[in-house]
Amino acid sequence: MTKINSLTEVLLEELKDIYNAEHQILGALPKMVKKATSPALKEALKMHLEETEVQVERLDEISKILKVKLTGKKCKGTEGLIEEGKEVLELESDNPALIDTLLIGAAQRIEHYEMAAYGGAKAVAEELGLDSVVMLLQETLDEEKAADEKLSEISQEEVLAEASVGAGSQPKTKKSGRNQVDAT
Fold first, then answer.
1. Does the pLDDT at position 61 exceed 80?
2. Do 42 and 33 contact (CB within 8 A), yes or no?
């Protein structure tokens, strides 16, 4: 068992976790791109792959600022989320938008995990007065939030409508400003 004695050590633990998470994500995103059928979803995932490469570079920069290595830790949370996402990669459907819907859900779970991780690390860096680290973490946090919003937009404006067309789906009716399944 490792004993944590300072906020600096807390920050390093968080950063090591994030560093490993980003490397795991770099391995998973190309598979998601390949499985996606929606052009908008494919493009968003490709863009996020490129952003993730830049995010790793930022973490390398933070590593230099803090004069530490960020290797040596396994992010079990991301590992679990990616394992869950692999289940989607093994599914097939006559309606590919159903798979795209599941891919979006898997990607958003990872985005939310990353937002929590970066937000926590940023708060610790702020408390430690590490302004350059805070700035770098905020850049990535902003990108993660934007990626999540883009995935929601693709889901709501394209994929869900296509997923609802097909066998087993029921038509939607508008009630109280929300989409609900018509039970009649």
1. yes
2. yes
